[in-house]
Structure formats: structure tokens, C-alpha cells
Amino acid sequence: MKPAGPRTLIDKIWDTHAITGHDEAETLLWVDRHLLHEGSFHAFNQIAAREATVAHPELTFGIADHYVPTRDRESPDLDPQIRGMIRQLDDNTQRHGIRQFGLGDARQGIVHVAIPEQGLTLPGLVMVCGDSHTSTHGAFGAYAFGIGASEVAHVLATQTIWQKKPRRMRIRVDGELGPGVTAKDIALTLISRIGADGAQGHAIEYAGSAIRALSMEGRMTLCNMSIEGGGRLGLIAPDETTFAWLEGRPFAPQGAQFAAAVEDWRGLVSDSDAAFDREIVIAGAEIAPTVTWGTSPEHALPIGEAVPDPDAIADADRAASVREALAYMGLQPKMKLTEIRIDQVFIGSCTNSRIEDLRAAARILDGRRAIVPGLVSPGSANVKRQAEQEGLDRIFQAAGLSWEDSGCSMCVGMNGDIVPPGHRCASTTNRNFRGRQGPGSRTHIMSPAMVAAAAVTGHLTDMRALLPEASR
Ligand SMILES: CC(C)[C@H](C(=O)O)[C@@H](O)C(=O)O
Ligand code: SF4
Q: How does it assemble (predicted)?
């Protein structure tokens, strides 16, 4: 049913997937793609207990990422618990005839990196996964969001999901980004302004010339972090950049079908007079390379600034929370961000482990040595192969960083890759919560080039100072 009046892209996708229900209450939506990782075992247990079957195994895709080892994958000494998590996904997908990109598969990788690579993420689809960062797929103009374990069971059994319609927020980033400023910096700047719950209850559409100018990799980074600003999801209307990226991907429509699909996809834009519940505008030129200093992604500042001083904050609750964050992070009020020394670095995660991310880090590391240890985990087996063809692995290794296999790895530490207690890590990930990278770990999040710059200096550093003069 197509309601009258101008509609946003969010409404358009919603309307074509609504089966029954009311916008004011809950609506049953059709799900075009359901993605599973190792955490899906709860849901499989639930459907087994009800003797239910998987309604549409052909629309369901499994991939092992959260627990997979980044080194010695075939080792017989693999932690039995980790092996068990991976085997469970193998068994559950096999039993139900679900396609899986498992540990040894050439297409394996972090679900939000490897699934788009296969052309499974397409404009206009509704996509779900039992993982909050499913918003990443919104980069292609898909309506993609994370769901909980019992919802995973519901989708397995019915290929549908009940949803309350989110409010619509548009975030426009206009103008040009400065040298070295990336999608990660847009995301951190935005979250620092609206707060970690600023977009709560909203689906976000990113628009504006700075967003249009982003590559697909950059768009994925930005949509990925919509969740850290409290959004339900984030998406970007598909355009020529999207179509060019998708053409020829294994699961994308091929040949004449692709051309026909592109014609349809061109209609996936918000009508020019469509109303949003909230609108935010940021000037691209205002955004600087940004880092987090605290224990929430909203604790982010441009690299040229200093750690906040809780004594200077009037609001008592906010002052107390800043004080606690600084205590956990082991930082002094008012110290310059560039004075923060780090113990190690991590380049990886569904936020920033794509080929463009690795190129940006390698560009800074080329010909230099890291003075702290670090791990580079490419986002997928495909990214790893491409990076090796380009010689990026040699740059990372020559700089002293270890180059390993793909998975969630040190983003969350479930596979055993952790930051030791009290250690400080400059990381390309999306969450700097207490203990996120291991009990007692301290995380500073930033772009891949900023992590590379921190690796070579041993402290948080403005990467622009390390760029070749011509590109500054
Ligand atoms: C383990 C998984 C369910 C979780 C998520 O939902 O995001 C993880 O990917 C994370 O990033 O914290
Ligand atoms: S890489 Fe990190 S953020 Fe992404 S899905 Fe894995 S654990 Fe979650």
C-alpha cells in the first residue's frame, strides 16, 4: 500500500515491506536477508524446542566471525569452547540447509564486511542480524538493523519481524572534508555533538555533498556507527558510487537484470519535500581528525584539543561521569590529547577493516616503524588477499605490526585477542566501553590513519603531520 504524500527513503522501504499492522503500534515486516553469526545458537535452540523449521533458508546466510581465531586457525590446540561456538554454527546452518561462509571459506570475514562484498547487501532490502552493527548495510540504501536472540528465532521461523516504526532523522554533512578527515571522524564528531543516545528511536538518513563524496567503504563506516549515536539504523540513498561497487558481485543481479535493478534503485531517494522528524546539519570543513578520550563514543574530541576538566563542568551529573571516565582511563584533566601515550594498536573490526582503511593506515606506516606492538586483522579473507596483492601486508610487517586473519578479534576479545588490564590501545573499532577489549582495557577509538600515526609515535597524534607534504 502506498500512502499519499511525499515520503522519505525510510518510509518507502518500510511501505514495500509492511505486511500488516499499524504505524502507531507494531508492523510486521518482510525480511529479505537474515544474517547469522555464532551468537545465533540461542535462536536455533529456541526453534528446536518448538520443533519449528527455518522458513526461508535461501534468504538466510551464516558466517563465523565473533569467535574465530586470527592466527593458527587449523591448530589442534584451539580453545575447545571457541571451537564449540564455531562448530555449533556449522551444525545449525547445515541442518537447516542454510548457506554458510565458515572458518575455512574463502569468503569468510566479519559479517558486515564479507556479506556486502558478496553482493548480498542491495538497495531497498530489509536486512536483519542478531548484531547491533547491522546498520552498516544501510550504506547501500538497505533498511538494516540489529535484532535480539528471540527475534532471530522469529525471523528464522517466519522470515518476518514485528517493528515499531522509528522516527526519521536526517543528518546532512555539506561541503568538503579536509585532508585526512574520514567517515570515522564524521561519525565521532556527530556522536560527540548529539550524545550516545542522541538518535534514540530514530532511523537516520545521511545526506549532503560530503556524504555523496564518500566511497562505499566510508559509507559503511558511518552507517556502522549510527548505533553508537543511539540510532535504530542509518542509511544512505544509493547512487552511482553504490551501483559501480555492486556490479559484478557474485550474488548481485547480473547483466540485463543488473541494469533493470539499477533503474528501480534510482527511485530509492527521499522525495524532495518529504518531512523528517529531526534534522541536523554539519559543515564538513569543521570536522577534524577525532579521537575518544573516555568510555563512551560520545567522549570524542578533535585531536588538537585537551582532555576535559570535570571541575569546569557546571552540570554535577555530567562532571561526575567525566571524572569516572578519566579515572578509568588513567588520564589527567586538561592534558593534551596528543600527550596520551599508548601501549598497543589494533586495526580491524566491522567499522574500519576494509581495503581502503588498510591503505590509509599503510600510507602512514610506509617506511616507518611502530614503537608499540599491534595487530592488523583485515575484515575478510577477500580484503586480506587484496591487501597482500597490493603489498600492504609487507608494509604492516615491516613496521612491526602483526598481520593476521579476519574476524571480530580485538574489537570485542571473544576469540582471545585482548588488551591486558590497564593497557591503552589506539583502535579503529567502534566501542570504547569499559573493558570492551578485555577486562581493565582502555580504548581510544579513531580512524585507521590516526591509529597508524599513534603506532609510530607511541602517543595520540595528528596524522596530518605525517602525511606527505603535497597532500596536507
Ligand atoms: C556479540 C554481538 C551480539 C555484539 C553486538 O550486538 O553488537 C557485538 O558484535 C558488539 O559489537 O558488541
Ligand atoms: S567487529 Fe566488533 S563491532 Fe563489529 S560485529 Fe564484531 S564485535 Fe561487533
A: Heterodimer of LeuC and LeuD.
Question: 436-454: per-residue pLDDT in tens?
Answer: 999 999 999 999 999 999 9
Which CATH class name applies to 294-471? Answer: alpha beta
CATH topology of domain 9-279: Aconitase; domain 3 (3.30.499)
Q: Which residues, judged by CB distance below 6 Å to any ligand atom, belong to the binding site of ligand 1?
A: 39, 66, 131-133, 146, 412
pLDDT at 3: 65
pLDDT per residue as tens digits for the range 239-261: 999 999 999 999 999 999 999 99
Same fold, 9-279 and 294-471: yes
Listed by start position, the domains of the chain span 9-279, 294-471
pLDDT score of 77: 87
Mutate to test the pocket of ligand 2, among 429, 437, 443 (most ligand atoms within 8 A of CB): 429
Is residue 42 helix, strand or coil?
helix
How do residues 402-443 score in pLDDT, each as one tens digit?
999 999 999 999 999 999 999 999 999 999 999 999 999 999
Confirm or reject: Cβ of 110 under 6 Å from ligand 2: yes
Write the DSSP symbol of residue 170.
E
DSSP string, 59-108: GEEEE--SS--SS-TT-TTS-HHHHHHHHHHHHHHHHTT-EEE-TT-TT-
Annotated binding site: 350, 408, 411
